[in-house]
Amino acid sequence: MAVAVQSPLLLFMKHRNLRGQGKDLYCKGIKSICLLVASLSLTSIALQGCSGSLWRKGGDSAALTPSLNEARPALKPVALGEVVAFQLISENRVRNHVILVGKTGGVEKISLVDGTRTPLGQILGPVQAAAVASTPNNAEDFEKESLLVVASDRGASLYKFPSLEHIVEMPSSTARFTAISFDTARRSVLLGGSDGLVYRWKLFDASGEFKPSRKDGVERYFGHAHSLTTVLPAPQTPQIFFSVDEGGVLSAFRTYDSDRFGGKYDTSLFDDRAYADQAARRTYQLKSGSSITAMAASSDGQLIALGGQDGSLEILTSKGLTRRALVKIAHRGDVLSVVFLGTLPLSNNAREKTQHLLASIGRDGQVCLWKISSSIAEGQAMQKEYSVELLKTSPVPGGYRLLALGLKEVGVATRDSKVLAVKFSL
C-alpha cells in the first residue's frame, strides 16, 4: 500500500516544484490518505449491509431484493462452477432453502431467511444435470430420507441427501445423460440421453420396496433423433412425461406401465378427441421452426410454456399440445429459462377462467413477468380464448436459470454462481 501511495505523491511534488518542502508535505499527505482510506473502508462496510437493496426508478421496473450469496459460510467453500441444478426444497415442511449443484460437483444450500450459504460437500464431477427429491415415504421434509440424482459423462448416480453418501450407479446403461428429473410421484427418475433416448430409472419395485440396482428397473423410450435437453413430468398426470431434443421437437410420452384402458371413456391423456389407449407419444414443434431452449409446465397441469432460440414464447395446453398463444419477440436472443409462478385470484368477470403468472429470462439479461389469461369465448361455452400480457421487466445481467420462489418472486442463478431474488410489485 505504501508503494502504491508514494509514487503518485512524489510525482505531484515534482510537478509543483515542492521537493524542498517534501518531507513535511509528504508526512501530511500520507496521513490524509490513510484517513481517506479508513473512511472509504467504513463506507464500504456500511454499504455491504444494504448492497442488495437495489431499487430502480420507473413504473414498469421491479425491485431486486438482497443477493442470497452475501453471507459467508462457516464451512469450507465448495467449487460450484456453472449451476446445473437450482431447486427450492423444504425443511420441517417449510419451503425455506434453495439447493445449488454446480458443474464441478459442488453442492450448496442457501437459506431464504437470511441468505446464508452452507456448503454441503463435493461429489464427483463434471455434472451435466442433477435433481433432488424427498422419498415417497417422507412427503416434503428434505432433511430426512431425501435423494440426489446426478447425471454425468459416466452415467447416472444416486446419493443420499443432504449427507451426499453414494448409494448406487444406474444399472445397464452406458449413455451420456444431458437432462434429468424425478417423476411426479418421486418413485422413478427420468433421464434424457445424448443418444436421443429417454430413460426411466424405476427406484422402487411393484411392492414399494427401494430397489434401484435391479437390472429390469430401467425403461427406454424411443422417438427423438437428437440429444435431449429437457425431461419433465406432467404435474397432474403421473403416467405422462415430456421431453425436448436439440432439434426442437417436444414429445409427450405415456409410461409403459400405465393403465392403457384407465379413463378410456372419460378422460384422454393427450387430447379430448382420442381414446387414452390409442397413442403412446405425441409431438410438437415451434411454429417458427426454431429450437426449443426452455420449457416449463404449470403446477395445475393445464399449460406448457416453450421458449425458442429465436426469442419467441409459446403457450400450449398440456393435453393435446395445442398452441394457444404466441409472443414472437419475448426476448432479444435465446430464451434461457421459463418458470410458472402460480395463478392469480379470479376477478368478477364471469367469462374469466384462469390467470397464470410466468417468468422468463433471455440472453438479453431481462427477467420478464407475463400474465397468461384464459376466458370463455363469446357465445362458445366450450371454447377458451388465451392472451399473454407483459407485466414487468427487470434486468439481471448474467442470469440464465430461474426458480419460482413465490407468486411474485423469482430466483435467478447467474453464470458466476450467484443467486438473486427478483420481487415484482403488481
Low-pLDDT segments: 1-23, 25-31, 33-75, 262-268, 272-278
- Strand proportion, as a percent range, falls in 35-45%
What is the approximate shape? globular
Largest sheet: 4 strands, antiparallel
Provide the CATH architecture of the domain at 63-337.
Answer: 7 Propeller
Distance between the termini: 49 Å
- CATH level 4 superfamily of the domain at 63-337: YVTN repeat-like/Quinoprotein amine dehydrogenase
Total beta-strand segments? 28
* SSE series: HHEEEEEEEEEEEEEEEEEEEEEEEEEEEE
Q: What is the CATH third-level topology name of the domain at 63-337?
A: Methylamine Dehydrogenase, Chain H
Output mean pLDDT: 76
Describe the overall structure.
The model is unreliable at 1-23, 25-31, 33-75, 262-268 and 272-278 (pLDDT under 50). With 426 residues, this protein is mostly beta strands. It has a domain at 63-337: 7 Propeller (Methylamine Dehydrogenase, Chain H). The chain is 10% helix and 44% strand. The longest helix is centred in the N-terminal third of the chain and has 27 residues, at 22-48. The protein has helices at residues 2-15, 22-48, and strands spanning 63-65, 83-91, 94-102, 106-111, 117-122, 127-134, 146-152, 155-161, 166-169, 177-182, 188-193, 198-202, 218-221, 228-233, 240-245, 249-254, 281-285, 292-297, 303-308, 313-317, 323-327, 335-343, 352-362, 366-376, 384-395, 399-406, 409-414, 419-423. The two termini are 49 Å apart. Strand 20 and strand 21 form a beta hairpin.
